[in-house]
Amino acid sequence: MKNYHFCRSSHDEVMYRSEADLIIGFNYLVYAALETDSKLLADGFLSTHHHCITRTDSPELLVKRHRYAYTRYFNAKYHRRGSLGEKRYFLLELDGLYHTQTAFSYVLRQGLHHGLTATPFEYKHCSVNSYFRKELGKTDNTTIIDNEKRHQFLPRNVIIPTEFRMDKNGLLLREDVIDTSYVESVYVSPRNFLYQMNRITDEKIIKEQQDENSLPPITISSIEKGVPDFNPQKVFIQEAGRVNHNLMTDIELCHIIDDIILPRRFFKNEQEASIYLLSKEKRASIGASIWEECHNRNPRNSMFSGKIVTESQLKRCLVI
Question: What is the domain extent for residue 34?
Answer without folding.
Answer: 2-239
